[in-house]
């Protein structure tokens, strides 16, 4: 990657972003996507110690449910791969145990959402447990996956042609993603994904823009989506450096 | 071994001579209570 490439945001939220990258190869775009899914370390519960569980679910099932609760992951360097953060839960029925009931020993690592139900408890049932959260990658277990809905599409360029003839019925032309219209980026959701809505009575031609990709990134709440992208790129960078060192002997 | 009678809900101690029967009410269905140990479960 010697040539310059530029990045432009289309939508920008905390957990949800959409951005355009120009001047990259499809292989590089896919590399970033895969790194976002599998190579960015996130915190997740890895071991649960049950002190009391008189609920209707087995300890193992509850452990899995606790493991899948997204936890916030502090910036790189704050925690090493084998550091442990302990969270505890103590809920007595009647009522529902939520992820928000987890009490953390380190405020940097806490449930990303407060309203994930863990189990419903009847009168007299009780759940008391301690859990250890560790840092790991999506490669090893899906609970460590920071990017949950990550994908990209080609940027599409729309050129408007001739008027269609008076007696011809215009057909719906459905496309999804982001289109480029005279250098302006337009989300297809703005015109109901139908080009005949935006250009009534015109012939429209659509083509992919080479080397331009629109990424859509959504995280589970472990960190901001922009953080996920930069951390993913950092993992590629460090693995490339490792490979270079290994090859030179 | 400590059990709980499913009818009268009382704690029952069984020995090898009495057979499986609640000494208080004669019920033959006994439930084994969960132990007080802390159980460690890995998330898989």
From TrEMBL, chain A:
DNA-dependent RNA polymerase (RNAP) catalyzes the transcription of DNA into RNA using the four ribonucleoside triphosphates as substrates. PROSITE patterns: RNA_POL_D_30KD (PS00446). It comes from Natronosalvus hydrolyticus. The gene is rpo3. Its main location: cytoplasm. This is DNA-directed RNA polymerase subunit Rpo3. Belongs to the archaeal Rpo3/eukaryotic RPB3 RNA polymerase subunit family. Part of the RNA polymerase complex. It comes from the Archaea.
Automatic annotation (TrEMBL), chain B:
The keyword Zinc applies. SMART domains: RPOLCX. It is found in: Cytoplasm. Coiled coil: none annotated. It catalyses: RNA(n) + a ribonucleoside 5'-triphosphate = RNA(n+1) + diphosphate. Signal peptide: none annotated. InterPro entries: RNAP_P/RPABC4, RPABC4/Spt4, Rpo12. Binds 1 zinc ion. GO terms for molecular function: DNA binding; DNA-directed RNA polymerase activity; zinc ion binding. NCBIfam families: PRK00398.1-3. Part of the RNA polymerase complex. This is DNA-directed RNA polymerase subunit Rpo12. It comes from Natronosalvus hydrolyticus.
